[in-house]
Amino acid sequence: MAANGLETPEFQTEGIFTVVFKRPSPNFLLESSGKSSGKSSGKSSGKNTSHVTQNLNPSEQKIIELIISNPSVSIPEMAAIIGVGSRAIEKNIHKLKLKNLLHREGPNKGGVWIVAKKP
Questions:
Q1: Is residue 38 part of a domain?
Q2: Which of 12, 40, 42, 91 is deepest in the core (most CB within 10 A)?
Q3: pLDDT tens across 63-78, in order?
């Protein structure tokens, strides 16, 4: 478990036998897969998003950046990384769709987000 960045389970033998597993942080899956946790190291990915993120609020900008780094990111994952509720993410995605900057391809599970390119 330690090799995967998880804490060792705790075994309790008083009374009934119990094993306690510690939950990883909400960003654990993204951090362990090499994806961004939302914290910047100061290094650029080399992808220029300025043509897409003009005239967007900070949450919309962050959503675009997350989708560019991981097109299959889910709404709950985005909410955990940005630090807002899932409903706020859904509203911002709706605004981005109305601006023709974002659309979804594929099914709800297994689909990917597509960020529109500048014409």
A1: no
A2: 91
A3: 999 999 999 899 999 9
Give the total number of structural domains in the chain. Answer: 1
Q: What is the pLDDT of residues 3-41, one digit of tens each?
A: 666 788 888 888 888 888 776 655 554 454 444 444 444
Angle 52-90-100 (CA atoms, 0-180°, nearest 5)?
35
Supply the pTM of this predicted model. 0.55
Strands (E) across 3-51 are located at 10-12, 18-20
Instruction: Return the DSSP state at 46.
Output: S
Q: Could you tell me if residue 90 is inside a domain?
A: yes
Neighbouring-strand partners of residue 10:
20
DSSP letters for 69-86: H-TT--HHHHHHHHTS-H
Tens-place pLDDT, residues 33-47: 444 444 444 444 445
Is the CB of residue 77 less than 8 Å from the CB of residue 63?
no
Which amino acid makes up residue 105?
E
Q: Helix or strand or coil: residue 108? A: coil
